[in-house]
Each structure stands twice: as C-alpha cells, then as structure tokens.
Design goal:
Elements: H1 2-7, H2 10-19, E1 26-31, E2 34-38, H3 39-49, E3 54-57, E4 63-70, H4 74-83, E5 88-93, E6 106-112, E7 131-137, E8 140-147, E9 152-158, H5 160-170, E10 174-178, H6 184-189, E11 195-198, H7 205-216, H8 230-245, E12 258-259, E13 267-268, H9 270-275, H10 289-293, H11 299-310, H12 316-331, H13 333-343, H14 349-357, H15 363-373, H16 376-389, H17 397-404, H18 409-418, H19 439-449, H20 451-466, E14 472-476, E15 480-486, E16 498-502, E17 506-510, H21 512-543, H22 547-573, E18 579-581, E19 586-591, H23 596-599, E20 609-613, E21 620-624, H24 631-647, E22 655-659, E23 663-667, H25 680-692, E24 699-704, H26 712-728, E25 735-739, E26 755-765, E27 768-777, H27 785-791, H28 796-819, H29 840-850, H30 859-875
Helix pairs in contact: 7-8, 11-22, 12-22, 13-16, 13-22, 14-15, 14-22, 15-18, 17-22, 19-21, 27-28
Length: 876
C-alpha cells in the first residue's frame, strides 16, 4: 500500500486527503477552470449529469476515472446532483495559482445536501425545503425542521403518529437520525426518505442546549417556549451541529426557534392528508386542494399557504380573526386587486434576505431586494385605506401586519443608488457599481473608456511642441504605446524621447508620460474590478443589520398574501364566509367539492348538497347509493369545507355553520402495499384501527366502503360493529359520514337513535341510470353496479350474464330471509337470542364447534364445516 502511494501524483495525494474527510459525498475538486470528480464519484457524476467519463494518469502505471465540467457551469450541474439525493462537497482553490509555491492549497468551501441548499435551481418557489432531525426515547420522539433558505426553524415532541403526520405535512428533503438505531428508521418511517445518520452524542440534551444558546446568544431557551420539550430541543441541536459540519457558518438569519404547537391545530393524520389530497394528488394528472386554493402572488405567501392547509386552526377566535380580515379584503374588489398588484413584483423577499445573511446574494438579487422594499409603502397605504373604512374593533390582524412592515427606506435608497439598473449576476467581473458612487472608480473607468481622447491630447500637444505634423501614436505588445516619426523629421525629436525601434522609413520612440499612462490603462481594468468587488462587499455589510427587519416584513407580506388570496379565490369561485363557533354542529347548505367543481367541463355545473351533523340527533349518516353517484365526493367535500373554514378561508357553500373540529379522520380508498406484504384489507383495517384508538368528541370521521377488502359477510359484520362502536362510545360522539354498499346497514337506524340513513339519488329510465348526485333521506336498496359496468364499456355478453346471476342471487337472498331472523342492533345489554342456553340444539352446535381445530383448517375445509353447521341449523 505504501508503495502505491509513492506513485500517486501530488494532486491526487491532495485529493485523497480531502476526500477521506467526506465519505458518502461527491467531491467537486477545483483544478484550474474545471471542477473534477475522480473514481466512484466520477462514475456517479457522469451518469447523473450526462458528462463524459474518462481516465486520468495517477502516477506510474496507474489510472483513475475522471469526469468534470467548467467551473462556471456549477449552478447548472450542482442542482442535478442534489435532486438525485447526493451530498456534494465543493472544494475550491484557496490561493492564486500564479503565486502558489508547489501545489495550490485547496479546501471544501461548501457542503451541499438535499436539505441544505440555497440554489434557486434546487429549490421550488412555493415549497419549503426542510432539513429534519428526529430523535427517540422510549415511545416519545423529538423532531425539528429547518429551512435554511428562509431561516424558519421549528421543533416539537410527541408520539410516532405525531412525527409521521409532520413528515407527511412538511415533506423534508433530508432527515438526520441517530446512527446506533439506524435499523429502526425504515421500520418506523419507511424507506422513501433521504436519511443521514449521525453519532449518538449529537443527540444529547446538554449538547443541544449549549449549541442553541450559543447560536441565539441567550442563557436559557425559556423565551422560545420549548423548555418542556427536551427531545424537541435535542433534535434542534442536532440540526445546528449538522450546519457546522457542512460548512454553513453564516446563519444569522436563523433568529428564532418556534414550537410546533400541536394543540393549536386540527389533527390530520398521514392517511387523512393523503386521502383528502391536500398537498399532492394520489393519481397522475390529478389535482390537489392546494392547486385550487393557491392564487398567491408571492413565493413566501405560497409557502405559508401550504402550512395553513395542513395546519388548520382549532381556536374559534383565531379562525374568526382570519375570516374578518378576508371579509374586509373581499369587500372591495378594486382595492384587493390593487393590493395584489403591488405585492406581485416583490418576488421572494424571504429567500433574498436569507441569501444576504449567508453572504450568497449576487448584485442582481441585491437590487431586486431593494426594489421589493420600494413596494412596501404603497402596500401600507392600501392597508391604511382599508383600515380607515373598517369600523370593526376585532379587525386587528391588518393593523398588526401594517405595523410589522418596514420599507427600510434608507437601505433601499443606498442599494439603488450604488448599483447600476441591470447589474450582472457576478460580483467579481465588474460593471455593477453606478457612476458617481466612488471617485477613484470613476477615474479608472474614465481611463478605460476615454483613453483615445487622452492619447489624442498628448499627440496634439507633441505635434505643436516638435513641429512634426506627421507624428502618430501606436501600440504593440512588445513595448506598448509609442510615438512614430518619419525619417524626414528625425532631427526634430526631443532629447527626452527614448528610441525603441528603427523601421525602413521611420523610428519609434517612447516617453515617460506614455509609459505612466500605459501602466494606468493596463491596470485600470484590474483595479476597477477589484474596487467594485470591494465596494459591493461593503454594500452587503451595510445591509446586514437590516436582516431582522426585512425578515419580519417578508413574514407579514406572506400573511397578507395568503389572506388576500383567500379573498381573491372567494370572488373568483363564489365562496362564502362560514360561521365558526365552539358548538358541535356542522350545517352546510349547498356545499360543493372545491377541486371537482374546477375540473368539470364549462357547460356542466357541480350539483350542491346540504349536510347536517350534530352530536345529539344526527351523529352518524349511513350514505348508500350506486357507484359513481358521488358518495365519495360528498364525504371529501364535507371534510374539505370544514378544513377550509378552519384555515380562515371562505368555503364553497351558500352557508356553512361549523362547530370547530379538532381531528379529521378518513378511511377513503386503499391500495395494496405489496412491498410490505400488506393487502388492501390489512391497510384498511390498520387505518381504521388508528381512527378508533384516537377518537375525540369533536372528531369528524369519513369512512368509505369499510370492509370491502374482505368477504361480504365479514365486511358487513365489521362495518356494522364500527357504526355501533361510534354510536355507543362511552365518552365521545364523533360526527361520522359512513358511505357503504352494504344496504343491510340501513337497519341500524331503526335501533340507534343518532344514526340516519341517506342516499345519493339516481333516476332509472328503462335500462339506463341517471346520476342526480343529490343527497336525500332514506336508504338505497340497489348498487347499480352492472349499469356502471355497462357504461364503462364491458362486453354485452358479460353484462347480460351478470344480470342473470344477480337475479338468481336476489331470489336466493329473499328465500333465505324468510327462514332467518333479521340482524338487530347491539346494545350494552344485548343478549344472543338465536340459541337459548336450555336448547339441546345449541349444545350439539357447541360440541361441533368445540371439536374444530382452527389452526389446521384450510379455507376449503372451513367452508365445508360452515355448510355442515348451516344444515344442522336448518334441520331444526
């Protein structure tokens, strides 16, 4: 091994020494004008980036794989590596190669990971890019989230379900987790995440508290309200440590650690967020709720809206405060349009100020930030007009936002005065500082731009002095600027001229003045570029004290943008203001599904429906009706209307009276999770069990086709018992919508007083079915599945045979009903009435059942035994 090392070139020895410090990381190694990758890094980079893979000599009889790209293309190639889930270390030359003695010093200047990026090509405009850390102690978990591109930093603590919900909501780009329990991660959270494992000492409370206190320059974390969340604090500390080891040292924009206050927000488990398609559609080309709701005009408004969608409020007062603001903005269309027009040019002020803090803001972005600040005063003027017209005292949100906005006028003026109107991206190539800002820079530019005029003046003066009319000034690379005199006038050459070259018909001379000017000209461009870079750095340093004020302004703008967005979509789509209270009633009049109605053809209107739920008279609705009638849409639209109302948005209904909901559960649709060996039915039962174990008195539960993943009788039994459980629960009366094809469940309404039957209406015309999509009282007796199959294009022979089989089955069902008793709803004191204790037949059946070995019984044998049991009962 030692022998092979002696054969390595000095460059490769340096490369391997640096690479050793960054395992599992692609190292971009700056060599001259290129970033090079070597070995396995080169193989991966060539595949991901589509660049040529070659080989490089690594000393005698040794070669290593090589792939590289020009250094100026870093912003094009780096995002591709990050989006592929790779960690990338950028290794730069730390000294001027011209002045280096021996090999150029190099070092890693930046370590970019999926969760730590400020590159616009990596970041999505209206989506946060979170780095997450998770730690575990017993059954409790700590979790923290950081978006380094905005400075948002949050932590929380809770159960596994709580962390799963947050992961589903925030979708972090990268997760940090303790190395010693590495194997637990995929079992707990799945395998779809980018995970980086850190030493266990990083996840200790003492270390975390010390790191956080040092960063925030405080002696205690009590001011952040996280002192009772030791695991949340621990996770936040791990994030700060990760910033340090990835060379992210300029983090002054991370100014607060916020607590994720679970008690303030509606509980939406990961199944509900997925099933309701709040942020992402479940199917390709589908539309999520966020796609319909998001008409925000600023990127930070778009990002805040995503958070509000997955974190609806529970406090009626807080919800009403938002709604009052939306109502005031909604009242004046022209004022709302003007306000949004002023916000639109602001761009991503939040990320621009983060780039300022991290020292990565370029001249074009700095000027854009100043231009954005110039829009603040017109926005404040618009708000002042609304505030002056509104007399509701509770209308304090707009006033608060108005107070938080700061146009930082002196900074904006300084930047606009200092930078040219359209500066380039680079701060090291000149052409960024405006004229009149710096006298020396103006003089240098004058030398560069007006050199001919200066030379013409010298020539004119020397012609007069020497009386040589044919005198010329020229330039060559050998000795620079020169004066050329024809042989006829050689006798007139002054003594202070120095002869440099003799030609056939002329001679060339230089003067001290020309040499001084030449030196100025040649150095002027280099000096001006250096001076501009220096002036730009000074300008950035002058802007740093304003970071906090600009961040506060950006956050206020984000809130205003979302509230104005709610007012705008209410006008656009005909939404109305809901009434929010702390009662237990949900009363929706002419409700519509916000996503489906936007997807309908222009000539088709969504059929609205009324819906009423409370805890005393109409707690559970059993909704029957054929496939495609709209049962699932009705369930989803109810939840979406409630959630939109609790976000602070107007809703797609003519009226809505909402008693605040604290949890929304859905069991809507299922797909096999074959990778984990879970069937549709297993997934269905897992999600249903989660609901049953987490109920509350203010829960809203949506259940669609429970039990369909198993046999009909099993399914009916499970669905039946779930409805009974929800109705007879000793502590809670959760409001429930239960869509089903099991018409047998309609019998429940006869025995359970708070269960009501409804159906989605259809109209039969000969052999056709028209879906009216209207909810009406009463149960439905038909599913019309064969009609749907026919509509789907099923071959006519199959349809006819299906109708024959259905007819036979219905006859058998009627015959069986005459011989059997109807199901009766259970009650706490329910007794099994089919068999009496003194019945000899019961003793015979009991003996028969006791003799069965269920562990060895095959499915076929079980069916045969069931048939025997049936015959025993019927023989009686």
């Amino acid at each position: 091994m030692a022998k092979s090392k002696t054969k390595e070139t000095p460059l490769m020895r340096q490369y391997y020494a640096i690479k050793k410090k960054y395992p599992n990381t692609i190292l971009l190694f700056r060599v001259g004008d290129f970033y090079e990758t070597f070995g396995e890094d080169a193989i991966q980079a060539s595949r991901i980036l589509g660049i040529t893979l070659t080989k490089r000599s690594n000393g005698a009889a040794s070669e290593v794989e090589l792939a590289g790209f020009p250094h100026h293309a870093l912003d094009n190639y780096l995002p591709k590596l990050i989006k592929a889930g790779k960690r990338v270390a950028v290794c730069d030359q730390l000294e001027d190669p011209k002045q280096a003695k021996g090999i150029v010093k190099r070092g890693v200047t930046e370590l970019v990971t999926p969760g730590l990026s400020l590159n616009d090509q990596v970041l999505e405009t209206k989506k946060n890019n979170y780095l997450c850390a998770i730690c575990k102690e017993g059954e409790q978990f700590g979790v923290a989230f950081l978006d380094i591109s905005t400075g948002e930093f949050m932590s929380g603590q809770g159960s596994l379900a709580y962390v799963e919900k947050l992961l589903q909501s925030f979708a972090p780009a990268e997760i940090l987790f303790p190395q010693p329990i590495k194997k637990e991660f995929p079992l707990l959270f799945g395998s779809e995440w980018n995970v980086e494992y850190l030493d266990d000492w990083v996840f200790t409370l003492d270390f975390a508290e010390d790191a956080l206190c040092r960063h925030f320059e405080v002696t205690t974390l009590k001011g952040f309200g996280v002192e009772h969340l030791p695991l949340g604090v621990t996770a936040a500390g791990a994030i700060l440590h990760y910033l340090s080891i990835t060379e992210h040292h300029h983090i002054a924009h991370i100014r607060h650690l916020a607590r994720i206050e679970a008690e303030q927000y509606v509980w939406l488990d990961r199944f509900t967020i997925r099933n309701l398609e709040l942020l992402r559609p479940q199917h390709e080309n589908g539309v999520a709720l966020i796609d319909v709701l998001d008409e925000t005009v600023t990127p930070m408004g778009g990002r805040l809206l995503r958070k509000w969608v997955v974190l609806p409020l529970k406090s009626p007062e807080a919800i009403r405060a938002r709604l009052l603001t939306v109502k005031a903005l909604h009242a004046d269309r022209s004022l709302l349009e003007s306000l949004r027009a002023h916000m639109k040019p602001i761009g991503d002020l939040e990320r621009l100020v983060s780039k300022l803090a991290t020292g990565r803001i370029n001249p074009r972005e700095l000027r854009a930030m100043a231009k954005a600040l110039c829009q603040i005063q017109p926005i404040k003027d618009e708000l002042a007009e609304i505030l002056a017209e509104d007399h509701e005292q509770s209308f304090h949100q707009l006033h608060s936002l108005w107070q938080q906005m700061d146009d930082c006028r002196e900074l904006a003026g300084l930047i606009l005065k200092s930078l040219i109107e359209n500066p380039p991206i680079s701060s090291t190539q000149g052409g960024i500082i405006a004229e009149g800002v710096h006298a020396e820079l103006d003089e240098l530019r004058n030398l560069m731009n007006n050199g001919k005029e200066y030379l013409d003046k010298i020539l004119e003066r020397e012609i007069i002095r020497t009386q040589i009319p044919s005198l010329k000034i020229g330039f060559n690379k050998v000795f620079g600027y020169y004066l050329e005199v024809t042989n006829a006038h050689k006798s007139k050459v002054p003594n202070d001229w120095i002869r440099k070259q003799t030609l056939a018909n002329a001679e060339r001379y230089i003067t001290e003045e020309l040499k001084i000017y030449e030196d100025k000209i040649l150095r002027a461009e280099e000096q001006s570029i250096e001076l501009e870079a220096q002036l730009y750095r000074q300008l950035v340093e002058q802007a740093l004290p304003y970071i906090g004020r600009i961040q506060q302004t950006a956050q206020a703008l984000a809130h205003l943008d979302v509230l104005a967005n709610f007012a705008y979509i209410a006008q656009l789509y005909g939404y109305h203001c809901p009434e929010i209270n702390d009662g237990h009633t949900i009363d929706i009049r002419e409700g519509r599904h916000p996503v489906i109605e936007r997807s309908l053809p222009i000539d088709e209107h969504y059929v609205p429906n009324d819906l009423y739920l409370d805890r005393d008279t109409q707690q559970i609705l059993i909704i029957t009706g054929p496939n495609m009638a709209g049962k699932s849409a009705l369930l989803r639209q109810t939840a979406l209307i409630v959630l939109m109302a609790q976000m602070g948005s107007f809703v797609p209904a003519s009226q809505a009276r909402i008693g605040v909901v604290d949890k929304v559960f859905t069991r809507v649709g299922a797909s096999d999770n074959l990778a984990k060996g879970e069937s549709t039915f297993m997934v269905e039962m897992t999600e249903t069990a989660s609901i049953m174990n987490n109920l509350s008195d203010r829960s809203l539960i949506l259940m669609d086709e429970i039990g369909r993943g198993t046999s009909t009788y099993d399914g009916i039994s499970i669905a039946w018992s779930i409805v009974e459980y929800l109705h007879n629960h000793p502590l809670y009366r959760p409001k429930t919508l239960f869509a089903t094809h099991y018409h047998e469940l309609n019998q429940l309404a006869e025995h359970l007083p708070r269960v009501k039957n409804f159906n989605v209406a259809v109209k039969e015309l000969k052999d056709k079915v028209i879906f009216l999509r209207k909810l009406q009282e009463g149960g439905s007796e038909h599913s019309f599945g064969i009609h749907v199959a026919k509509m789907a294009g099923m071959p006519s022979g199959i349809v006819r045979r299906a109708e024959e089989v259905l007819s036979l089955l219905e006859e058998e069902k009627m015959h069986h009903r005459k011989k059997s008793k109807r199901l009766t709803a259970a009650s706490p004191a329910m007794q099994l009435q089919i068999f009496q204790a003194h019945d000899p037949q019961w003793e015979k059946i009991k003996q028969f059942l006791g003799g069965l070995d269920l562990n060895t019984l095959t499915p076929l044998e079980a069916l045969m035994k069931l048939n025997e049991l049936k015959q025993m009962m019927e023989s009686e």
